[in-house]
Design brief:
Blueprint (H helix, E strand, L loop, with lengths): L15 E7 L6 E2 L2 E3 L17 E6 L2 E6 L7 E3 L6 E2 L11 E4 L2 E7 L19 H6 L1 H16 L6 H32 L3 H9 L12 E4 L11 E4 L9 E2 L1 E5 L3 H16 L1 E6 L5 E4 L4 E5 L15 E7 L11 E4 L7 H7 L1 E2 L9 E2 L13 E7 L2 E6 L7 E4 L6 H15 L5 E7 L15 E6 L3 H25 L4 H10 L10 E7 L1 H7 L1 H13 L5 E7 L8 H6 L2 E5 L4 H8 L13 E4 L3 E7 L3 H11 L19 H7 L10 H6 L7 E5 L6 E4 L4 E6 L4 H19 L3 E4 L9 E3 L5 H8 L6 E5 L2 H11 L2 H18 L1 E8 L12 E6 L4 H6 L14 E5 L6 E4 L23 H10 L4 E3 L14 E4 L5 H11 L6 E5 L14 E5 L3 H9 L7 H4 L6 E6 L2 E7 L7
Parallel strand pairs: 11-12, 13-17, 13-18, 14-16, 16-17, 20-30, 23-27, 23-28, 24-25, 24-26, 26-27, 33-37, 33-38, 34-35, 34-36, 36-37, 42-43, 42-44
Antiparallel strand pairs: 1-2, 1-9, 3-4, 4-5, 6-7, 6-8, 8-9, 10-11, 14-15, 15-19, 21-22, 21-30, 28-29, 29-30, 31-32, 31-40, 38-39, 39-40, 41-46, 44-45, 45-46
Helix pairs in contact: 4-5, 7-14, 8-11, 10-11, 19-20
Amino acid sequence: MKDSGCLARSALRTDLHLACTAGPDVGVVVAPGMVGRAGDVPLTCASIAREHLRLSTRDGRAVLRVSPGASPVRVRSRVPLWHRYREARPLPAGTRIRLGEDVFEVRARPRRLAWPSVSGRGRGSLTGSSLLRGAPLVSVLVMAGFLLWRLRSSVSLSSVLAPACAGVVLAAIAASLALSWRARRRRRGWDGGALALILAGLPASSTPQRAARAAVWPGRPTRVGRRVRLSASVDAREPDECEAIGIVGAHASQCALWCAGQIAAQLGGARVWWNSAAPVLIGHAGVDIHVSDRDSCPHCTRDAARPTLHIGYASSLSLLPAWCAQVCVTDDEPVSSHWWWTVTRADARDSLPTRLDWDPSSARGRGGGLSVRIGLGEEGPVDLDLVTDGPHALVAGCTGSGKSEALLGWLAAIAHCYSPEQVRFILIDYKGGATFARLEELPHTQALLTDLDAGATTRALDGIASILQRREETLGALGFPDLATWESAHESDPLSVTVPPPRLVVAIDEFRVLAQAHPDSMEVLLRLAAQGRSLGLHLIAATQRPSGAVSAQMRANMDIRLCLRCVSASDSTDVLGDTRAASLPRIPGRAVLADVGTIQLTYLADIASVVERSNATWPRSVTEPLWAPPLPEALSWEDVDAATQPLPDHALQGNEARDARPDAAVSLGLVEGIERHGSIVWDGGSIQIQTSAHEAHIAAQWALSLATRIAHRTRHPLHVIGEESIEGAASQLPVDAPGVIDLLEGICAHGPAVLALTDAPQLRSYLSHVLTAPQAEALWTSLLATARRAGVVIVAAFAGRFTPSSAALGAFSTRIVRARDSDEAVHAGIAPGELRALGEGQALIVRPGDKPRLACIPRQSVRGHGDYLDAEDDWHILSPSQVAALVRNTRSPILIGPTYSAPTWTHALPWIIIGRRDDARIVEAIHAHFGWETPKIADVIPEEAWTRITRWDKHRVLALNPTHNVIRALIQHSHTPPLALAARRWESTCGVISEGDTVTTVQLTVGSVNT
């Protein structure tokens, strides 16, 4: 016997199964395995989880294992009380299980698969043989009556008759209860679950019957004699038989399918036509059954090679087809609509071709809007129009089903038939761009978005939202309710009505990946699709595995549902509501179109030729883009200045209005916009630049470029810590220069200023090396905390580890982040969905309260900014080379302080020398330089006696090449000692000078006696 291929057949291969006796899935049978909306036999009850429980058998009993997070399961055995199911407790046959709104019964596999025949009366009916079996009971009753008559003289008749009558009544009641219970059990054997097993067990091939006679229950089974009899033979038809019946009721369509299943069970199989251009099979095709709700049966146009029976249905008598010879009214629901697709299989013998090549001459559909021919059905060519049939479409199909080729062919056909002024494409391909890459060069294609640049999807959604908002405003101003009315008005009067904007087709290949990786983007897209129904927005969502990804909102908004071959029945159910697509043959392009049936989609082999013809007909140069072109990958400061000039007719809004205010003169680059790219306006705060370690040179270039730009525009002095040389910088120090600590300590006291750090991690490592860890951390924290108040702008480059803004204590109001993957983005505090594919000069600009935005920043430094520096404060720190030149060329014998300035003392003081007595010659040279008298040496303290060091008021203390103990002793008696004292490397030509509670460095020059 050939496998029928229906889903219910799996229940015949096990000793136990579940049969739904009530609820949305009534009639469905489920074999052991996963039970739920994503099970092997998918259920439709919304209150059941996708994988609610797993059913297994053990020793002839059912065992349920409820999935974590699923709602509890309640069971009922012989006692008519529902109770909560205990995990792994075996359930015998006959147990009822409540799962959501469905009620299932544990049933054993029937030993005999049989349905009451058209002439059979069923078990328990009153036949001649059954009456003969009751003959002994009649004899007992006759003998009892005769005995009572004989005893009438000796026994009071009234005293005997009353108990006898009571006994007879009780016996009659017991017999009626027994018969009722037996009839109920018999009817339970004739429900949808039992019929599903019978239909699943029918052979796929058999000898066709000569006479097509059947008897059916229109609703739930009652007595066998109350069935409606049908016959397809006019000559041999009996008076109580008819060829067509009609069913009226709230569930008329389900009752009609229930009747079709009963006919197939009695005749060994049937070929059924219902709500589809393609038939389905039950068993073998012994008889044709046409199920329809139309006055003219659409299936009777074919050649009638087999006996044919008709079943009509309607919700009311006034809507019932006129050809129904007998009418049955019932509100029963013996089976669900989903039951039908578990007992049927697709008919592989159809008239559709295995391949249908695309014909450009007939590509345009017969309708208006965006109608194109997509394939061929049993009724002829199939046209699909996103405007009239949509506005949105859902496409599904497994690998090898031809889904991608069908989607490409559909879009290419639209591009072939309609100009870019009528339709534009926004293609979202979350498989790396492999599917839609061939359509990228179409003049209709506005953007191709892939998972390699996830942030571009967000920009496209913002662009779509902006376009829809403008269209809504324009429609309101013109007085049109929707875009279709605008198009019709322009077509009727093109001179007085302006040209309507093009329709937008957003095609998503593998939207399941988009929904999982970026659920926010998918929700925004669905919301825009719901809002844009009247504004010309059309969404085509395609996926390989729709199971679990198709929400109720998607199914409600997407009127076009096209499903190619699916791997599982649950995938087909999620798209079509039934399992037809799971049984499609392995023919690429074979699909089921909802409300149409099985079709063969067209195949477009040469898409490149369509793209070439479209570009020749509508060149890209004359096609106006929907939003601004991509942001350039590299810019110069001249380009930035030219782009910051607003257009005369461009009204700035939002961030653009903030960034283009007249008083904001410092533009740091361009930021991506929808209608036009805006300017990155400096907000007055510090800037942090974050890149990976191998792009450290880019971070350093940006730091110098932005620092010189800000210093040039604000006319503030520029201080640089880095290896690069900047023309006109007030301070230019390498990272490991001794003066770095002096610069970091003193810059906030000499603001406003601009500080450029080309390698902040290396700088911090140097500070931790020459200072103690607390000192290094305190210096860095103090700089970040006081810079904004002191007017110091820090432009720091951080290459290597990415950190969020909170790691810098909020000191940087602007962050420029060049994250290349999701790990770097997460560490930088950026959502992976906001990542962008970055060009050479591009990065993400992040500001508090704003979403990250793509920006392009020049990498070359501004030249000549030193000409604009303020002369009021010339504080600066010299580099080692500048110090060496100053030592050789100055006339002063010593230079003091971090700025290496000549001393400006106004009077002489006594000296205390720590070290050798020969150092007194330095003091004499100092006095000679000032023209003072011979110095007074109050004391000479050897370095070994550093414990004698204390604070000496009205004295000057000189210590050349001091030891660490001397430095610590001097610092202990100083009010605010500079941190650089602990990091300096001392020599015989340098040391410290202390006066009162202050201590500072001293450097001997060529003019001193010791140099």
